[in-house]
């Protein structure tokens, strides 16, 4: 750090941080409309997966949600649907809101 003074170092660091922030904002994050559309699509997929389950499994998952046993509800949902952890967690969150347990 002997070759550069403190002010120049902080100016370069700030410039790099700003560029990194701007690149991050422009890549992959999408617009608010894109995010809202993605959330609506995920919610619909979760509702479809839940409605395709056997009624007994639906009732069991609703009971687990009502009892606050979210991990067990997610696990049971995954067993029934074969979906991944994130999709199952999101589906249980949507279901929880739909039955008024949120």
H/E topology pattern: HHHHH
Strand content: under 5%
State the secondary-structure class. Answer: mainly alpha
Number of strands: 0
Largest sheet: none
Mean pLDDT: 86
- The DSSP helix count reads 5
Task: Characterize the structure shown.
By secondary structure, the chain is an all-alpha fold. The chain has a domain at 31-98. It has 5 helices and no strands. It has helices spanning 6-26, 32-51, 55-66, 70-81, 85-98. Helix 2 (32-51) crosses helix 5 (85-98), helix 3 runs antiparallel to helix 4 and helix 4 crosses helix 5. The longest helix has 21 residues, at 6-26. The mean pLDDT is 86. InterPro entries: Ribosomal_bL12_C/ClpS-like (IPR014719). Keywords: Membrane, Transmembrane, Transmembrane helix. This is Ribosomal protein L7/L12 C-terminal domain-containing protein.
